[in-house]
Write a structure and sequence with these properties.
- With about 80 residues, the protein is α+β, with helices and mostly antiparallel strands.
- It has one domain.
- Helix content is about 20%, strand content about 25%.
- The protein is built from 2 helices and 5 strands.
- Strands 1-4-2-3-5 form a 5-stranded antiparallel beta sheet.
- A hairpin with a 4-residue loop joins strand 2 and strand 3.
- The protein starts with a helix and ends with a strand.
Length: about 80
């Protein structure tokens, strides 16, 4: 699945803490508290830095994480990787 297909299927939410209207949540502070404690984990994705690319992967991950993303549609705990544009 490419990034555009992922956006169409899972519908990432706008970060309501970010005035620029982006989809990325920080991994600390009020963003992290919201994502980790107020959102069902089946709607949370983690942006991870790989060796040569940045990936969006389903679920909550801690190693190499850059940001979180919340989607309207659940990933149902299925492992999915998407190359972040």
């Amino acid at each position: 699945m490419n990034y555009d297909q992922w956006v169409e299927k899972y519908k990432p939410c706008t970060n309501h803490f970010d005035s620029t209207g982006g989809i990325y949540y920080e991994t600390f502070g009020k963003d992290a508290h919201f994502v980790l404690h107020e959102i069902d984990s089946s709607h949370v994705w983690t942006v991870i830095e790989g060796d040569t690319n940045v990936w969006i992967v389903s679920g909550i991950h801690y190693v190499n994480r850059l940001n979180f993303v919340v989607t309207d549609v659940s990933h149902d705990d299925e492992f999915i990787e998407v190359l972040d544009n």
